[in-house]
Amino acid sequence: MDTLPTTSTAKRGGRSKSVQTSKPSILLAFFSCVAWLYVAGRLWQDAENRNLLTSLLKKNSEQRPKVLTVEDKLMVLGCRDLERRIVDAEMELTLAKSQGYLKGQRQQTGSSSDRRLLAVIGVYTGFGSRLKRNEFRGSWMPRGDALKKLEERGVVIRFVIGRSANRGDSLDRNIDEENRSTKDFLILDSHEEAQEELPKKAKIFFSTAVQNWDADFYVKVDDSIGIDLEGLIELLEHRRGQDGAYIGCMKSGDVISEEGKLWYEPDWWKFGDEKSYFRHAAGSLVILSKNLAQYININSVSLKTYAYDDTSLGSWMMGIQSTYIDDNRLCCSSIRQDKVCSLA
Description:
- Keywords: Glycosyltransferase, Golgi apparatus, Manganese, Membrane, Signal-anchor, Transferase, Transmembrane, Transmembrane helix.
- Residues 22-99 form the DUF4094 domain.
- Its main location: Golgi.
- The protein has 344 residues and is α/β, with parallel strands linked by helices.
- The chain has ten helices and nine strands.
- The chain has a domain at 117-252 and 282-343: Alpha-Beta Complex (Spore Coat Polysaccharide Biosynthesis Protein SpsA, Chain A), CATH 3.90.550.50.
- The strands form two sheets. It has a seven-stranded mixed sheet, with helices on both faces.
- Helix 6 (170-182) links the parallel strand 2 and strand 3 (185-192).
- Helix 3 runs antiparallel to helix 9 (290-299) and helix 7 crosses helix 9.
- The radius of gyration is 43 Å and the shape is elongated.
- It starts with a helix and ends with a strand.
């Protein structure tokens, strides 16, 4: 009898514990349902947003204008006149290039062949070379009326010089004053006269000369040599009518890669492992036919210059249809009796 109440109390205590432990489970299930409903609602809302965006994009794509052709764009922008001018410019450029460097093509002008000059001779000079210029004027280079008579024979000679780094200074004024007196200068206003700028001077000289004079040949001469003018004229007369002529005392040589040495070439690595220059005319006296000078004029912006003008000019001649003419009479240090130049 004493044990019955005890047993009954234990069972009641067990049921109370079971009821208490089920409450957290119910709360967890409730919050899980709430979380599931929240996530499902967000997913449904995102799906609705995607559908809305898709419909808007589809509507915009349908309303977007069709791709315009080039002709439509030109009409909209009013560029028909520009298009015509571009076509004309391309035709003119093609014609100019064909006359400028293609072998066998000569520029057609209204003048007869006997009115074309034989040659334009440019004698390089500097600001401090007035005494040497006067020496040339008193020897092989005509002056005054004799210079005009030479031009009537078809040969123009000019001293070639650029401008001072300080434009308008006494150096420029002295050259202008000398030119007013002698009238035998070709002043390159776009060129800054400096020793390191000689390769650029070659480009500007040939470009300026071919623009100013219509001649068969354009000749570059250093002021370190003397000229047998009649011998040079005879040589040019013999070559007259030959297109693509690159004439000079042809040479080659080692490329100097050691900085600080004489004739150092900063771009030495471009000449290969052998470090040898390509064949080119010595810079003291170089002759180009008209179409080669025109080629330099047309392409001067893109022509690469090296450390020296003779190798720069030689590199320009390599990529076009030029005829290399190695004439020993143009080797100024030669012992030939009929050479047309000598070291001054």
